[in-house]
Amino acid sequence: MGEKDNKESLPEISIEQLEEGVQHVNNPIVGLMPIEKRYLKGVKEYVQTSNNFYFSDGEARVEVRVVSDEIIRVKLAPHGTFLEEFSYAVSKPEQRVTLFSFHEDEEFYRVKTNTVTCRVSKKDFLISFEDNTGLVTNEDYIPMHWEENADFGGYYVYCTKHCATNENFYGLGDKPSSFNIRGRRFQNWATDTYSFARDQDPLYRSIPFYTGIKEGTGYGIFLDNTYKTFFDFAHQEPNKTSFWAEGGELQYYYIHGPHMMDVVKRYHTLTGTHPLPPQWALGFHQCRWSYYPESKVKNLAQNFRERKIPCDAIYLDIDYMDGYRCFTWNKKYFPDPKRMIKELSNDGFKTVVIIDPGIKVDDNYWVYREGKENRYFCRRSDDYYMEGHVWPGRCQFPDFTNPEVRTWWGGLFKELVEAGVAGVWNDMNEPAVFGSGTFPNDVRHQFDGHRGSHRKAHNVYGMQMVRATYDGLKKLFKNKRPFTITRSGYSGVQRYSSVWTGDNLASWDHLKLASIQCQRLSVSGISFCGTDIGGFTGEPDGELFTRWIQLGVFTPFMRAHSAGDTREREPWSFGPEFEAINRKFIELRYRLLPYIYSAFWEQHKYGFPILRPIVMIEQENESNINREDEFTFGDKILISPVMQPGQTSKIVYLPQGKWYDYWTHEQLEGGTEHTVEAPLDSMPIFVRAGSVIPEWPLMQYVGEIEPDEIMFQIYYTDYEVNSFYFEDHGDTFAYEQDIYTEKKFVVKGDSSSMFIRQSSEGLYTPRYETYELKLIGLPFVPLKVYIDGKEQNQDLSFDELGRVKIRTNKNFREIQVIK
Ligand code: MIG
């Protein structure tokens, strides 16, 4: 970060200097204050209106709002006047009615809910939060402060908190740094960062939310401010954590834990979760800059099918358009898009096309004309249109913060949808402009009626673009789920889109960063994320590509992508040996799709992040604070991707409890590290004891086969374990009307028996009738099996992997296996 941006280090202006500057003015300077940092002074009074408490130091006011039992919001108005309530991030600002009380003594005011107390000190206006055992989790180091901004109006606003020696930090979106971000400073200002480096900051997204964990207790801070924001986690001084913004309100949510999982789930109650994606979007996607002309696309599709490598989606990057004009086709390359897309679709491929925000200035181009006639493009402070160069040449840019523009934009997809396009990829929406990087600060935005310059709208521009895209597609698709992917985004973008991490590089360190960035995005509210498998720029060798495919199986979004100046980059591009391993792992992804889909449902419905880093599972264990290799996908499967060239074994940490090696079914004790084999054709994958993992028969694409049976692998446990399984149509919004089935399995065994109980919720009925259960790890030789109390006559012998097979009706309530 440049010194210029660091307001904390700007020299302060003295009264003498200021008076020097105004000595020729005739007006008296009474009341004119020098511009310098000002701090809240002691609290003079307070007023309560329902769940809002207003404290004042005589001039500045602070609002403390009880949002829910576990969430309290703090807001500062330096001169006593709050801005209008408005947020792009928070979809439901009013949560359920909460219980709270107010207390005052000599020293403090206290706003108390069932779980959190917000304490305001009368003497110096310091604000702190404690749980109901009196443990202080978060407290101001100095009072909130601000500095007037003479150029733009408003204030730079600051908050500085105590930081304990054993306090660690997680979150903040896509930062390409170590998973634990203690000791670092970051800024949020969405930026197109081609071929970004480790520790480069900022990147494409702005997610001003983090979880702090102090002595095993977690809490969250979400600074809902769209301006350029800064976070310092004990970087400048080891005992302070600060966050500040270049404008807008100092407005943050304190989110109670104590578990990081609670914090992230509650953050989701504020900012929303991903809607369910169409099921095919969880398959393998193949992308490149660019596949054209049509013959190349067809050839690619044919290769996948002939080689029997599963794939669901093919992407068209910018070259499919006519001179990079959005919503047009290059008819030389793609003479009949509708026919081509239909043929691809008959072969099981979905077509996803890229759409950028820059609209070519060209009076013969209908999109430009419509935008111009309706004044939909962004303008500068002096009313000139904002112009900048991007791929199409000279462009203007829709103001996506205007709801009318969003509706117009959504409608522009009509022809693409009629041509059969199934998904849209929004790129360059930081927004990126060649040369200058992005828009100048003075560009004006409608900001949903709340008006603002680009300083205020920059970080939400991409999110509002993909929102317009998603909402438009949703309308055009009738009741079918759209698929969208965006490069830029602000908190809450998960309600509209998946994301990828942008222009990474083909290197082993970037493979590591890919894993960290996806884990970080997942604990920052954006579960549906992935990376360019293989690295966007540069050339991976076969080994790196294969290791990246392996990680990709366990990222919620799985897509191979590469820049135009690189060699071909398909799963077969590195020779038959690598092709075989790549196939094996892409097949694994497809077998696990029902598990992956169920994990997605848990994210959508309950706000559980899909990827869960070790610290999220065992935050109380100090030795976990810096672990970043292992994570779980959903609740049951743990992976530790191999991220070194030539590596054939790996030390893997398994959390407390019992685990099984996914490949060998060997049982392993958790709470410790294990050395495991990891030759190139394998990778460390473990399953929690007691898990019930659904698998589909192998398909080349989602929907190729309607399974006539679902297979479940059930891992023996001697303590009770629950698992969930979700299914529905896979491509409609009927789940919003409870047309789905959510199954719960309970598994437990002892030395001579094991039971599996099943219960079910929801209104969806799948067509298949039976399950095939494979029991793994039974410590006894089973002789009898009872299904709902009836003894069965089934072959209970162990297969070559030590599994016992049971076939059952899908509606069983209880199965018992007995020695
Ligand atoms: O200026 O559309 O990150 O995925 O292939 C480059 C071309 C524009 C950047 C994206 C990349 C995409 C590329 N785009």
In short, what is this structure?
Helix 6 (403-411) runs parallel beside helix 8 and helix 10 (542-553) runs parallel beside helix 11.
Structural class: alpha+beta
Query: Percent of residues in beta strands?
Result: 25-35%
Rg for CA atoms: 28 Å
Bound molecules: ligand MIG
The rough form would be described as globular
What does this structure look like?
This protein is of the alpha+beta class. The chain is 18% helix and 30% strand. The strands form ten sheets. Strands 1, 6, 7, 8, 9, 10, 11, 13, 17 and 18 form a ten-stranded antiparallel β-sheet that branches. It has a nine-stranded parallel β-sheet with strand order 32-31-29-26-22-21-20-34-33. Strand 6 and strand 7 (108-112) form a beta hairpin. Helix 6 runs parallel beside helix 8 and helix 10 packs parallel to helix 11 (576-591). Residues 1-11 and 21-25 have low confidence and may be disordered. Bound molecules: ligand MIG. Ligand MIG is lined by residues 289, 317-318, 354, 427-428, 487, 502-503, 561. Ligand MIG binds at residues 289, 317-318, 354, 427-428, 487, 502-503, 561.
